[in-house]
Amino acid sequence: MMKTLWALALVLLILPASGFEYPLAITDSAGREVTIDAPVGGIIVLNSDAAEAVAVLGAVNQVVGISNSVKDKAISSYFPELDDLSTVGKWNDPDFEAIGELSRDDSMGDLVVISYSYPDKPYGIFSVEEGLSPFENIIVLALDFFRPETMADEITLLGAVLNKEDRAEEYVQWIESKRFQVEMAVEGKTKPRAYVEWSSSGGLGSLSTMGPGSGFGVLLDMAGGENIAEGLEGDYPKVDWEWVVSEDPQVMIKRVAPTDETRFGWTEDSLPFDESEEIQSRPGAESISAERDGRVYLCHWDMVAGLDHPVGLTYLAKMLYPEVDLDPQEARREYIELLGKTPTMDTTLVYPRV
Description:
This protein is an alpha/beta fold. It folds into two domains: about 1-165, Rossmann fold (3-Layer(aba) Sandwich); about 190-350, Rossmann fold. About 35% of the residues lie in helices and about 15% in strands.
């Protein structure tokens, strides 16, 4: 159902032929038709992906409320402007009364609340829309900002909503340039067989891998890898370690969730040695081509999720094809500059470094 929804209803943008005029009619990522009658006043972001999207567009100064998870994920380390803002509950359990209270401030104008879509979940856009229905001057938008295949459309839509079309176009051009660089670098090469591990918390008998429909699966395909989970059902299918050994992947990539200390990458003092040793100690690991050839990588999750996914794409291509002329750190530097920040490049998002 979700794939059909994306194919049929994703982010249609209806703009006047010339000039910026209202009303503005859009279709968001949940297929909801939304009309915006006047320039947006304040913005409330219910997740860090939305906060980052607003920052890319240069509209952080319009944010008036954030979810607890935005603070918890230290997004304010990138954007100190958000430090003192009101919190409005969790991303998956927002405090509707707190949002409604902000909407009563006439000086703000209409508020835009940006939520993940998840139309089939109790914490998705339709639940948020219902919870905020008693309040006036609130526009609710479903924009995910974590799917590589829809990122350009979503940022273009938000650029129109916030009257930041030039900034949106700059970001879209950056996405396209990074994708083109990777495409040209890997074109015509024999695809290495790759295994991506999302989580091993269930033990070696219940490992979560990344299916072709997941965000990582999409990036892996774009980077020129052959996903050994291609034929499995679901975005995050469960497999056991014996199956991985039998598939003999040429490249292994394990996602490692960041801690507060490693939120923006690993320093030399915080490299994930324990995770690497755990993989090496698994029964039969030494028989896998990826282990024998030194091509087992740990991947910092921030590199493949969100608006900086072209950075992750460049890293992935470099892991799959070490010989190609691609510079992941340069891609990181460019993205941080798009955020209007000064890059500090003393961390890595992949171990061993590529």
